[in-house]
Amino acid sequence: MFSKLLSSCFAIYIAVSIFFDSFVGGVAFPMYSSFRAIESNQKLEQEHWLRYWIGWTLEQSLSEVGKLFLEYFCHNSNF
């Protein structure tokens, strides 16, 4: 009984950690910082966050293409 409760709590902890790591660290904070840079009219800060979003978009796009590639070849292979 206790081990099931402990494993459930651990799973919740992992899910929350992944959410905060990926969403808050990868999207929410940069989005907030980007808006602050735009409002402050600091050219270097705007360029920094523009580069971040270009890199983030490329990473997301390549990730999706990679998923499609793996899905196609894993589905059509004779393993």
Layout of secondary structure:
Blueprint: H1 2-40, H2 43-75
Helix pairs in contact: 1-2
Structure commentary:
- The protein has helices spanning 2-40, 43-75.
- It is mostly helical.
- Helix 1 crosses helix 2.
- It is flat.
- The model has no long low-confidence stretch (mean pLDDT 83).
Shape: flat
Distance between the termini: 39 Å
Structural class: mainly alpha
- Number of DSSP helical runs: 2
Largest sheet: none
Rg calc? 19 Å
Q: Percentage of helical residues? A: over 70%
Note the beta-strand portion.
Answer: under 5%
Please provide the count of β strands: 0
- Low-confidence parts: none
The SSE string, one letter per element, is HH
Q: Taking all residues together, what is the mean pLDDT?
A: 83
In short:
The protein has 79 residues and is mainly α.
Keywords:
mainly alpha, single chain, 79 residues
